[in-house]
Please model this.
Amino acid sequence: MRSKAMPPTTFDLLADDDQQPARTEQIGEQSFVLRGFALPWVEQLLPVLEKILLAAPFRQMVTPGGFTLSVGLSSCGTLGWTTDRSGYRYTRIDPVSGQPWPAMPEVFSELAQAAAREAGFHHFEPDACLINRYLPGARMSLHQDKDERSYDPPIVSVSLGLPAMFLFGGFERNDKSQRVPLFHGDIVVWGGVDRLRYHGVLPLKDGYHPQLGGQRINFTFRTAG
Ligand code: SIN
Ligand code: FE2
Model:
């Protein structure tokens, strides 16, 4: 099993499939699904997540168009992503608590950096971790991540709990999307030429996960500021 101690030296973007780690799937020129990459970290992630959620509980946010997102949102890190009637943006203060967003735990940023490295993105310095909670029926429609200051750093997206069907599209909303099933512990990394690809999540199916129960949690790490 890979761990954070394993150097990424065996990973060569131009290598033949059979030379790549068995559980890395390429879904774009610079886009990868790292199957099970987060599994060795889960025991450390969950108690820290619990603390973050005490300070910044999941909340339903409203889009500028007046729709309430079905996914519950929270954040940790210097910057947290929020939306309300006046627009999408990153803030230093959690608008619900009036306090700064909880700091990004070291284990979070280490995992995100290790995953980014595995996908060929070195020196990833995330300052924002969006935490999404999907209950059955919750979905995320196709969108691009465009609120960050620079599109040079990649997106690192960690899946925990119930499985979901991730849609990985093209550069136009109507381009055909790949359907990528994501399971507990999987990480998707996309960046470089793929940084602005549309993506989304189909409505979550009912189920039960032994560690997370009837929900899916997603961490999306970005360099926002
Ligand atoms: C997102 O695009 O913010 C979330 C993606 C996911 O939940 O897998
Ligand atoms: Fe996104």
The two ends are 34 Å apart (CA to CA). Residues 3-21 have pLDDT under 50 and may be disordered. The domain at 20-222 is CATH 2.60.120.590 (Jelly Rolls). The helical segments are 42-55, 106-118.
